[in-house]
Design goal:
The chain is of the alpha/beta class and about 350 residues long. The protein is built from 13 helices and 14 strands.
């Protein structure tokens, strides 16, 4: 495969080398940051002449460009790309789903909406969210498949709007975080705006799942940072155990329109029960995600239990085991850091195909 030529301006990243986009730390400098093993060649080449580049690339992620007040410093590179009629690539790891306002850009980001994937001359693609504390090495030796039982087992451990008023008191959530407060009235629970709609989606789905006696629900509501009775490392273990010990895991958006838990679930080879809230998933132009998840549209949350039961009853014992293996394989080949970067070129090929179809 012909190497893809990239042009950037590392002066933007001066004194901020530790914040370089992973495309440079992984491809160009061949170091182990972001869990990349030694890799001789990903098929990219850094060029000194802008005219010879296939793409321009911002050297550090957009969230750092904003946080370090480097937007103005980035404009000459952005304007040069526009002058040369070249696409400029940006990476954005954040809950924000607003357009970056960069003309002729290709943005890889964690949070985005399918209905706003194309804005003017720019296009957004989904980028996985990778967590340092969720590594294959932590459980690879104990990795096991979850066998099918008569009732589907679904897990969820994390933050949500309360399922009922009693859980507010039981979990002591008011004391767990200063960022959440509740006012209990006869008719409703009022919440601060920090409690995004995503947490309501979680609560609505959890209520339905919990109330269906044909489903074994393993649900624990905690504060955003876990249960205060446990240390950080203990909370991490409890979180991962909740995923591994169940066939299925509820995965829906939080503050951003994406789910960390979705990626953590497929790392563990478990089946996401995925609520689609106008989402974009990585490589959705070449991966049929409905073959790997229990797919629930936002307007179907009230029947999420029936969708799960229909799926569980339709799949064989062997089929459930094979699906878990295939999910794990998909993670390794496409969603892991090395898998994602190995296949990054498919996005550019996809854009070229779309251009030729117009």
């Amino acid at each position: 495969m012909k190497k893809i030529k990239l042009y950037t301006d590392f002066n933007i990243a001066k004194n901020n080398i530790e914040n370089l986009s992973f495309i440079f730390t992984a491809i160009l400098f061949n170091n182990n940051k972001n869990n990349f093993p030694s890799q001789p060649d990903f098929g990219y080449e850094l060029v000194d002449e802008s005219n010879s580049a296939d793409f321009f690339v911002l050297p550090i992620n957009w969230e750092w460009i904003k946080a370090l007040n480097l937007v103005e410093k980035s404009k000459p590179l952005i304007n040069l790309a526009k002058e040369k009629n070249k696409k400029i690539i940006a990476f954005y790891y954040d809950d924000d789903d607003k357009d970056l306002g960069i003309d002729n850009s290709i943005v890889f980001r964690t949070s985005l909406n399918k209905s706003q994937q194309r804005v003017g001359s720019s296009i957004n693609f989904a980028m996985p969210s990778w967590r340092e504390d969720i590594k294959v090495i932590n459980f690879k030796n104990n990795y096991f498949l979850s066998k099918k039982e008569e009732k589907p087992k679904i897990g969820f451990r994390g933050c949500s709007q309360p399922i009922d008023t009693f859980e507010i008191i039981k979990n002591d959530m008011i004391k767990n975080t200063n960022r959440i407060s509740y006012k209990i009235s006869k008719k409703s629970i009022l919440r601060e705006k920090w409690y995004y709609d995503g947490y309501k989606f979680r609560a609505d789905a959890l209520k339905v799942l919990k109330n269906n006696k044909k489903i074994n629900s393993d649900i624990t509501i905690t504060s955003m940072f876990g249960d205060k009775k446990f240390t950080m490392s203990q909370n991490k273990k409890l979180f991962i155990d909740n995923i591994i010990n169940n066939n299925y895991v509820l995965c829906t958006r939080g503050g951003g329109n994406y789910s960390y838990r979705f990626y953590e679930t497929i790392i563990c080879g478990r089946i996401p029960v995925f609520i689609n809230t106008d989402c974009v998933l990585p490589y959705d132009f070449c991966i049929d995600w409905k073959k790997y998840v229990v797919w629930v549209e936002e307007n179907e949350i009230n029947k999420i239990d029936k969708i799960l039961l229909d799926f569980h009853n339709s799949i064989s014992d062997e089929g459930l085991l094979n699906l878990q293996l295939n999910i794990r394989k998909l993670y390794e080949e496409y969603i892991s850091p090395i898998g994602f970067i190995n296949n990054l070129h498919k996005h550019f090929e996809h854009l070229e195909l779309l251009k030729n179809q117009i």
